[in-house]
Amino acid sequence: MTSSTPAPLRLGLRQNLPQFVLLVAVNALVGGMIGQERTVLPLLADQVFGLAAFTASLTFIVAFGVTKALTNLAAGALSDRYGRKPILIAGWLIGLPVPLLLIWAPSWWWVIAANVLLGVNQGLTWSTTIIMKIDLVGPDRRGLAMGFNEAAGYLAVAATSAATGWLAADHGLRPAPFLLGLTFAALGLGLSTVFVKETRHHAIHEARTHTPTNGDHHDALTGRQIFTLTSFREKALSSASQAGLVNNLNDSLAWGLFPILFATSGLGIARIGVLVALYPAVWGFGQMATGGLSDRWGRKRLIVAGMLLQAAGIALVAATTGFTVWVIAAVLMGAGTAMVYPVLLAVIGDVAHPTWRARAVGAYRLWRDLGYAIGALIAGITADLLGLRAAIWLIAALTAASGIIVAIRMYETHLRQPAPTPWNIEDEHPSRPGRRADLPHSPPRGRKSRR
What we know:
- By secondary structure, this protein is mostly helical.
- 75% of the residues lie in helices and 0% in strands.
- The chain has a single domain (17-204, 221-409), classed as MFS general substrate transporter like domains (Growth Hormone, Chain: A), CATH 1.20.1250.20.
- The protein has helices at residues 17-38, 40-47, 54-57, 59-82, 84-95, 98-104, 108-137, 142-171, 176-194, 200-209, 223-233, 235-256, 258-264, 269-297, 300-319, 323-351, 357-386, 388-409.
- This is MFS transporter.
- Keywords: Cell membrane, Membrane, Transmembrane, Transmembrane helix, Transport.
């Protein structure tokens, strides 16, 4: 037996606690890489590079979102092929130059290039830590695991956003805030290389012990079928994908335009840093509870309520002015996002089979992180044409609409009885056995299991 294969191999949070805690710490460093930009970069665009048009100033988010989305899709397939750990290490190597590019950038194009690299870094590292935690914990504690994973990442976003705001207020917009990012990248690379262990064999073990229902032929699924299921055809998977996209669409608004709105309303950099940090802080802390609650209460109701709560918080920003009321809005947005973010990942883990779960996570995260790019374009164009507050109102409406879609289309995926099997590709028509039928979109009702 090689040293890379645990003996005995067991699934569960308690059984794999040291590696799970280590991966939580690594994902906190991943979140810190994003946090170094949240407060400072929109202000750099306005005050240093003189980008007057909102659309132009948000190009760094477009570059980040598109690159991260495409990398997410690749990360799942690459981690299935080469293992989780090599992909995690590669992501950190690509992230190392990002803070240096931001410190030395003589033009806005350097910032865009840095965010292309940051998108690859985030797509490889964040996706892989998610996949590794799902591998380790097994099906029973998946929501709790995703809650801790996302909490670590977004608490780090919040802490770094606040810290960079304070550093920028005392020492200027560059270079001090970005030295934090350089430290995070070095620590992440070191921990991932030396201490993180491969987890792909846990997924293989779970696949071997997985109990199929209704004629499980998951091995016949192609990458295209998995992408189509996750994106469009399977009701729970595709509902999660659109909700993830809209969730990051409104996060793009908060990242790119809220600091500018706060600055033009007379707030100083330190107070802007507090507001920018508060939203992901509530989001991060809340996920410690909501992921586990979804294991007890189910996924759907938390997702619907969370999307509507986010919409209310965004609308409050659009409708009001002042530090105190914006604190309330940030809390509402953070609480709503906490109810959604880890639970959507748990939905993917519930429905996708262990043998193609990594690729389903990659497809979901493709759509989710395209929300950054789509949100930046929608918000930037609307703000240029109609003003900042009109852009915020539009994003609030889209977020509410997404919650309504989940309420209508998604079914509950965390059930005690056998879950639906979207990987079953047998023909439903006995007169034509062997032909690949359309994969089912929703849980079968009243159909007897084949024997």
